[in-house]
């Protein structure tokens, strides 16, 4: 293509963009609204303006930048800014929805920002017309020329990459800040509402912990008493003691998620020797991976545990051939801290510490063997404490190792496949590639152990690991890191890498922002939400909490619908399962409570008048709280049976 042909093509493109913008402007002035045809005109103007500028810059690459070409570059910048801005303003990407990218409707801000596209096309058209007539640019100054300017920008980018290559902290900071902002966006969007179904219960439990301050005792959790991994409460208890438990869970998940992404970048850079860009890509992969986002949604202890697990594996892999006494102490601290964070993480630490013990024993490393053995023993006893023993009894099977439960192959196996396909997807092949090419023993052993536990319903037809999907989710920070390393190494063409990145993150984007198509990925996944959204943005829940804060002082039992009970728990400190009963109102529940108490509160969306319970002698409606969809009723009831009351 010669110069005149390129000029003619670029002018034709700029003319088309100009006419499309003129049509959009006339349409807007005549109808005072932006319809589907307006959006198509804006898209045409945007594409053709940018393409015309590209051809013009390529043609006049050796000409001065301070010339008419600068107007075209400015116009293209405005077009790009206006198009991206109007897409965001029109909420094409909305929590829970993904509207069509082309032919979408506009709100007021979207219309205003789209005017930048129109202005940009005008700025591109008139210089292009001059260039077509004159065959050259009109220069204002003789230097610098376009080539030198672009070369300066390129050198700045190369120098920046070199700068980062010697400063691991900055690489981790870039990944961490991106992950923090990405995860913090829903927190800002929903204001004071907590993100996550279980998050209100984490707040309530943290306040229980602050009132009791005993890490190794049973605490109330979702209707029962449990031995709960205490590390999250230990770390966050200072905030609860000053009355900020609610607020800290608006911030903590984003900080922890940022730390997770930073560790992913550090592992890729230090252990797998990828270049700085590859290390940053690893952090981005971890930030956008759907199962990592799932952890941050409301598995808050597991999120902290994943941070400590990656820290432990990073240190153990770096030091395993030369473990001094100071390194051994650090490994024990990291390993035990990780095991105190979550049950799944404790399992991974136990497996990897056994592997580290064998390696240290073989190489006759006294400190390595001693520290890894101490970590393994600590993890084992912590797991036994979490599960209240080392064996459990299942009536249909007999005694089983703790953590192993009866399973229905026909029900669980399809769900496992859904997790592998929708959750892990194409991350697994690249992870296997990295594990084979870079055999990092401790990371590989931990990843494989978690994956095998996660797919246990496929391996044993009658039993499986309890809550097996938590183990698949537990492997996800490792899988996302390994997958990123494999993709960076094997996909040398940057276009292929970008394509893989988009496909890899698509379920994650679906989870974070939501698609109408998101159910195609997530509807078969156990306990999988459609997006990073609150448990329920229903003011009725908070009014329930307020009611019990103001009106509850005695140990009168409270029977509450499960979705409402977590908000009751926010107002009641350290209840027992008989004091805060997670149950929909039923005759059996009322009769159970009547065997212990003479009265109770009932918090429900149901009308208990129609139940005719034999154990209720009278009731009064204390409060009718308006909620989303229906009211929340708070009843005070008296029981018929007066025996055995305490």
Automatic annotation (TrEMBL):
Chain segments annotated as coiled-coil in the UniProt record: none
Keyword field contains Membrane: yes
Transmembrane segments: 40-57, 109-130, 168-185, 254-272, 278-295, 302-319, 331-359, 366-387, 416-434, 441-462, 468-488, 495-515
Keyword terms: Membrane, Transmembrane, Transmembrane helix
Protein name (Swiss-Prot/TrEMBL): Glycosyltransferase RgtA/B/C/D-like domain-containing protein
